[in-house]
Specification:
- By secondary structure, the chain is mostly helical.
- It contains 2 helices and 2 strands.
- A hairpin with a 6-residue loop joins strand 1 and strand 2.
- It is globular, with a radius of gyration of 18 Å.
């Protein structure tokens, strides 16, 4: 009976850990997005949801991720209402999952 309980608990932990890992934004993508934020306007309200150690695939506005790879595959930045200005930051090149 105790061996069966240990098996159930172990299985639950493995499933829980794998789901939480899958839900997280790729750390390379998160770093690149934070670099973009820093260069374009770290205080702009446009970036209010872009906070370190949060899931960029789930909680960051204007960012989308591939459901399978969890890599950023689209990013929307622009428009006069954003209050952003400047050149496209080089860090955008680190978002290798972007799709046209």
């Amino acid at each position: 009976k105790s061996l069966f309980s240990l098996f159930i608990i172990s299985s639950f932990l493995i499933i829980s850990l794998s789901q939480s890992v899958d839900a997280l934004c790729n750390p390379i993508d998160e770093h690149a997005l934070l670099q973009i934020k820093a260069q374009l306007g770290p205080n702009a309200s446009f970036f209010a949801s872009w906070q370190p150690n949060t899931d960029c695939c789930q909680t960051w506005s204007n960012v989308g991720c591939n459901n399978r790879t969890h890599r950023v595959n689209y990013l929307t930045i622009g428009g006069q209402e954003t209050g952003l200005s400047g050149q496209i930051p080089p860090a955008i090149g680190d978002l290798t999952g972007l799709e046209v």
